[in-house]
Write a structure and sequence with these properties.
Number of domains of chain A: 2
Catalytic activity (chains A, B): 5-amino-1-(5-phospho-D-ribosyl)imidazole-4-carboxylate + L-aspartate + ATP = (2S)-2-[5-amino-1-(5-phospho-beta-D-ribosyl)imidazole-4-carboxamido]succinate + ADP + phosphate + 2 H(+)
Number of strands of chain A: 14
Number of helices of chain A: 6
Pathway (chains A, B): Purine metabolism; IMP biosynthesis via de novo pathway; 5-amino-1-(5-phospho-D-ribosyl)imidazole-4-carboxamide from 5-amino-1-(5-phospho-D-ribosyl)imidazole-4-carboxylate: step 1/2
Helix content of chain A: 25-40%
CATH superfamily of the largest domain in chain A: ATP-grasp fold, B domain
CATH topology of the largest domain in chain A: D-amino Acid Aminotransferase, Chain A, domain 1
Bound molecules: adenosine-5'-diphosphate, magnesium ion
Keywords (chains A, B): ATP-binding, Ligase, Nucleotide-binding, Purine biosynthesis
Family (chains A, B): Belongs to the SAICAR synthetase family.
Oligomer: homodimer
Protein name (chains A, B): Phosphoribosylaminoimidazole-succinocarboxamide synthase
Largest interface: A-B, 25 and 25 residues
CATH architecture of the largest domain in chain A: 2-Layer Sandwich
Chain lengths: ~250, ~250
Amino acid sequence: MTDLTQIEKRDLLYKGKAKEMFTTNDPDIMWVHYMDQVTAFNGKKKVQMAGKGQTNCEISALIFTDLAKHGIENHFIKQLDANNQLVKRVKIIPLETVVRNFASGSFEKRFAVKHLLKFDKPITEFYYKSDELDDPFINDFEVEALKIATEDQMNQIRAIALMVNNRLKEIFDKMAIDLVDFKVEIGIDRDGKLILADEISPDSCRLVDRKTKKSLDKDVFRKGLGELVPVYKELLGRLEKVEGVN
Amino acid sequence: MTDLTQIEKRDLLYKGKAKEMFTTNDPDIMWVHYMDQVTAFNGKKKVQMAGKGQTNCEISALIFTDLAKHGIENHFIKQLDANNQLVKRVKIIPLETVVRNFASGSFEKRFAVKHLLKFDKPITEFYYKSDELDDPFINDFEVEALKIATEDQMNQIRAIALMVNNRLKEIFDKMAIDLVDFKVEIGIDRDGKLILADEISPDSCRLVDRKTKKSLDKDVFRKGLGELVPVYKELLGRLEKVEGVN
Ligand SMILES: Nc1ncnc2c1ncn2[C@@H]1O[C@H](COP(=O)(O)OP(=O)(O)O)[C@@H](O)[C@H]1O
Ligand SMILES: Nc1ncnc2c1ncn2[C@@H]1O[C@H](COP(=O)(O)OP(=O)(O)O)[C@@H](O)[C@H]1O
Ligand SMILES: [Mg+2]
Ligand SMILES: [Mg+2]
């Protein structure tokens, strides 16, 4: 691996809805720039917001560092400055893996169940990551038929997602927050190993304060409940106080 | 079991979109009346059609009889007359199990794949049978969480559905018809055994004539491609000519 102080940003490889991904002078390292932008409903709602990129970048860095300490291998390498970090380049498997501990969002709507119904065991779901198709819900047999992933890979992905869930629940428990659900993306690194990639932030989690019952996540933006960045900053502040995470 | 000649129709237990289910003087036997009605899009499109009930009733009777001969236990007991049959009463597991050999319908739309793309292996899918919820697509973890069925039951259901697929493919092969996809419902009989129930008919299958490429199923109605009953009658005629089925 290149000496990390020598890493230089090269070409913009992909500009997504929340991040820009740049190549670097090391083919195995990507430069991630967290943008001051928030989107919802597959990009149909989009707003620029000062401070949003930085907060997510820092939250994701803290969480990925903690997960690595707890044995969950991931792409995070180094925080560069407020909005930028270095990560291992992976081949993303185009599945958004959702873990649900309580009913909310599309689940609640699809099955008309009580908001925040608690599940006996976490539920996992796959969505096929495709902006054009609107990230359709997909089952294992369809994933295989469309050659998106193998059965073995799906089982590995679920195992990683559930390990992440266990550790995240521990962290948020210490913050008196319920982890309602979250989404992860898994990639294949250059050794062929499946590792956690992308980000874990209030953009990709649903978090509810146990005392106030308030959302501390992108639902604030989706539902127009108020200013988003102060909420994300509050979350970051609380996260930084958790022993072991900081 | 009551002497079948002594069975009497009692109360209407359930009037569905295609059939009326009556109790009888035997608590384990139901009287099914196939109505002259066809619906699509969860009942939003609905038309009365003379001869439709009879054709479906006869097709389903032929297929269930054949499946039983091929070791696939099912609810069918006896054809009474054109529109009526006796079946074993079961507790329906509220899952519509879909088997797909080629892409069509909601699959084709959801994943924007080529019409009639052939899959290497059949795909199975579960839909939660609920008119109010519009039969939402559901995965195994959700089925378990909502206590709709156990993991073991889901595996048994899939095994039955795939056995049905194998035999149906053999039958339709002899008729020069591609079995694109179909839906089954499975119920629990009074011994606690999972058996095939409901109906298998052109209402619940997608069938494409290999030579003419024409649909021989409810897609004729869904897409307004012409008169439905003559198509169903043609199918019945061809089915009756298959050796072993008649
Ligand atoms: N380590 C990685 N290597 C390569 N690609 C990654 C890595 N981590 C995340 N990605 C991908 O980079 C993009 C991140 O930008 P984002 O704004 O989240 O995109 P999107 O709008 O597609 O969600 C996503 O497509 C994500 O799958
Ligand atoms: N053997 C059986 N015992 C009890 N219920 C059955 C059996 N076979 C089918 N059913 C149920 O009877 C109803 C059949 O009527 P149908 O018109 O197909 O209803 P729907 O509009 O709900 O599809 C369905 O709800 C089906 O699940
Ligand atoms: Mg993203
Ligand atoms: Mg029905």
